[in-house]
Amino acid sequence: MKDAAAGTGGFASGIGSNFVGLRVGAVVVALLVLLAGGTFAGQGLGYIPGSFMTGDMHWFWIGSVMVVVGLAIGGAAIFYRRAA
């Protein structure tokens, strides 16, 4: 049986791989927030009809904030460098 604590395999063998998994997860969350924010903004501006949010500028501002937050999360996930 391999010893996970010694770094020879197992669940905790690759701390760096856990970091990569967190980075990928953060990028996925950022893309989802960007997609939802863009949808909200488009509905707020009236470009996407068929919802109670259509034409309501309140949703445009909420969507705009979500887009900025998504860009910040994605940028941090992509450009952040872990200390060696």
Task: Describe the model.
The protein is an all-alpha fold and 84 residues long. The protein has a domain at 28-79. It contains two helices and no strands. The protein has helices at 15-45, 57-79. It is elongated.
Largest sheet: none
Low-confidence stretches: none
Strand % is under 5%
Q: Portion of residues in helices?
A: 55-70%
**Continuous helix count:** 2
User: Got a strand count?
Assistant: 0
Measured between the Cα atoms of the first and last residue, the distance is 30 Å
> What integer is the average pLDDT?
83
Order of helices and strands: HH
Overall shape = elongated
Indicate the structural class.
mainly alpha
Write the layout of secondary structure elements.
Elements: H1 15-45, H2 57-79
Helix pairs in contact: 1-2
Question: Can you describe this structure in just a few lines?
Answer:
The chain is an all-alpha fold and about 80 residues long. Helix content is about 65%, strand content about 0%.
Task: State the main characteristics.
single chain; 84 residues; mainly alpha; 2 helices
